[in-house]
Amino acid sequence: MTSNPNHLMELPRKILIGNDVICQLGSFIRDLNDKATIVSVISGNTVKTRVGKECVEALDSSSLKHKWIETPNASMNDINSSQLMIYQEQPNFIVGVGGGRSVDVAKMISFNLNIPFISVPTSASHDGISSPFVSIRGRDKPYSLKAHAPIGVIADTKLISEAPYRLQASGCGDLIGKITAVKDWELARDAKNEYFGSYAANLANMSAKIIIENSRKLKDRAYIRTIVEALISAGVASCIAGSSRPCSGSEHLFSHALEYVSNSNCGLHGERVGIGTIIMSKIHGLDYNTIIKTLENVKAPTTAKEIDVTEKEIIKSLLIAQSLRPERYTILNKIKID
Ligand SMILES: [Zn+2]
């Protein structure tokens, strides 16, 4: 019998997806709170150049005052300095605009200051778009922290489709990882009596399956919406599970280990997760050839060489992966790697 403790599901309230929806940022915020007067926007410099004008026009047209804060890295320093500015401002919302780091910084500050947060992804590179999890550099633990889920998500598919293709392929790698993440979660249920939510597990699995089934078509930019919806669903699966379990297992531990071993010279998050999924699905006894084929079809890397890491670094990562998060039971607990 699996333990079944109470847990809180915190979900985004509004998700707007489509071409050019960034222009609706102001009315989107008004719909969430018609008394809102001021928002803080967090982004990197490149993103500000790309979408700053549209965002500012959208906020102005809804009579929302705004302060734009630039964050070069998602480091603890960035968070602390931006947080102080936002604390003094006391905005009604924090808007994180970017590919990953700025959204993470906004999410973390929103949690620390208890101010609702709106996620505006500019690429489809990972599932942090809609999840309550945040990865911050400069912590002693490499894995994600739990914060709040965004209250709203605006996914402008036109904007996202203009990001470099490599980011889109990386998003597919992050999604395919749900196959082994869910398998690891099942192991934890069986071996450790850990809470397991079938609905969240199925939802995460489904977002991987849609990538497998459509992998030949996904290179086409017209299919960006499929990837974005799958990433949002995966994030929502984490919200429902109340943990990152459905989205992050041994393949993510491997990815974190590789980052540590190679000093972060090891490709993008989803690229590492994709390669980790090949290895972990083989250890799980799953059909890893389908994983390879899918990653090849979407033009994501399938070998260490493609992300500039050595065989030695891969082996070292495999050896230390589980020790980075001992309490997260995965297939790496079950087998002896030497
Ligand atoms: Zn991930």
Task: Write a structural description.
This protein folds into 2 domains: 150 residues, 3-Layer(aba) Sandwich (Rossmann fold); 169 residues, Dehydroquinate synthase-like - alpha domain (Dehydroquinate synthase-like, alpha domain, Up-down Bundle). The mean pLDDT is 93. It has 14 helices and 8 strands. The strands form 2 sheets. The protein has a 6-stranded parallel β-sheet with strand order 1-8-5-4-2-3, with helices on both faces. By secondary structure, the protein is α/β, with parallel strands linked by helices. 50% of the residues lie in helices and 11% in strands. The structure holds zinc ion. Zinc ion (ZN) binds next to helix 11.
Short précis:
By secondary structure, the protein is α/β, with parallel strands linked by helices. The protein is 50% helix and 11% strand. Helix 4 (101-113) links the parallel strand 4 (93-98) and strand 5.
Compile the SSE list and pairings.
Blueprint: E1 14-18, H1 25-32, E2 38-43, H2 45-61, E3 65-70, H3 76-89, E4 93-98, H4 101-113, E5 117-121, E6 133-134, E7 145-146, E8 152-156, H5 157-161, H6 165-176, H7 178-192, H8 198-213, H9 224-241, H10 250-261, H11 269-284, H12 288-297, H13 311-320, H14 331-334
Parallel strand pairs: 1-8, 2-3, 2-4, 4-5, 5-8
Antiparallel strand pairs: 6-7
Helix pairs in contact: 3-4, 6-9, 6-11, 7-8, 8-9, 10-11, 10-13, 11-12
Bound molecules: zinc ion.
Low-pLDDT residue intervals, each spanning 5 or more residues: none
Query: Would you tell me the structural class of the helices and strands?
Result: alpha/beta
Each distinct ligand? zinc ion
- If helices are DSSP runs of H or I spanning 4 or more residues, what is the number of helices? 14
Tell me, briefly, the overall form: globular
Which strand order spans the largest sheet, edge to edge or round the barrel? 1-8-5-4-2-3
Overall structural domain count: 2
C-alpha Rg, in Å? 19 Å
Give the SSE order as H and E letters.
Answer: EHEHEHEHEEEEHHHHHHHHHH
CATH class of the largest domain: Mainly Alpha
How would a crystallographer describe the biggest sheet?
A: 6 strands, parallel
Distance between the termini: 33 Å
Question: CATH superfamily assignment of the largest domain?
Answer: Dehydroquinate synthase-like - alpha domain
